Amino acid sequence: MSYVLITGASSGLGKVFAQEYAALGANLILVARSEEKLLTLSAELRDKYNIDVRTLMQDLSLQESAEKVFAFCNREKLTVETLVNNAGFGLSGAFDSMPLEHLEKMIILHNLTLMKLTYLFLPDMKRRNRGSVLNVSSITAFQGIPYNAVYAATKAFILTFSESIREELRHYGIKVCSLCPGLTETAIFDKAGIDPYQTLMPIGPPEPVVRAAINGLEKNKNIIIPGLINKILIHGGRLLPRSLMLKLGIVLGRNKKAFLQNSC
Length: 264
Ligand SMILES: NC(=O)c1ccc[n+]([C@@H]2O[C@H](COP(=O)([O-])OP(=O)(O)OC[C@H]3O[C@@H](n4cnc5c(N)ncnc54)[C@H](OP(=O)(O)O)[C@@H]3O)[C@@H](O)[C@H]2O)c1
Fold this sequence. Notes:
By secondary structure, the chain is α/β, with parallel strands linked by helices. The chain has ten helices and nine strands. Helix 4 runs parallel beside helix 5 (about 150-170) and helix 9 (about 240-255) packs antiparallel against helix 10 (about 255-264). Bound molecules: NADP nicotinamide-adenine-dinucleotide phosphate (NAP).
């Protein structure tokens, strides 16, 4: 049977991806560390939509975690039709004030695991001449973001990586898209100790972001930027000097106060 595999499905965008794909009748493989949350969600979706939902508790910031997810799917004979690489976390502060261990986990989770999962599931998609990969990047992918340096760099990796393989895989009927959300109301900020309302950026709920992503993946869009203001900021930003965009990037990476201090 075919499945949509969603990493980071226990909360935020990943949970909404699970709910939206379930409503479309897709069978699901939900991966995250919080077992209780995954089990509650899977029971809910199974009952409501009469679909098959598998859960896998896995820390994806460990080096060999992608291999473990792949082995689980092989053992259970689950065909991954759509891979949603969504799991992630935030960090904010001066680069050299961050614990190195956290930065390393971020790079493994956002980049190494995402790359490996894509690599491992691709051969089967190629054999079947169909499949989709949705990689969750961010609007921070388009430029340097002071006080969010590693986060922004990992998101830029996702964008460049996805665009590159998208072109390689076009002839195999495989879709590859990057989702670049703006600030979205999820638990990511609380977990990172960031107040998103202190920034100058608009913030919205996760449901429209996920619907735009599923719709964009269906149409095989290269980059999906939900929200008009986010689109204007990203496309308009390309016309401005990078040095100016870096200054404006502080608005995203830190907060209003820091931006005003840095502008003075
Ligand atoms: N919210 C925003 O404003 C925003 C904007 C742009 C991009 N994004 C991106 O959207 C994605 C989802 O974030 P969110 O906003 O929905 O945040 P969230 O509510 O905190 O959800 C993050 C998900 O990732 C999982 N996760 C975190 N670390 C993990 C690990 N080591 N191993 C396995 N799973 C892990 C979490 O599950 P467990 O804790 O149970 O493991 C959770 O399910 C991230 O890639 C984020 O960078 C978010």
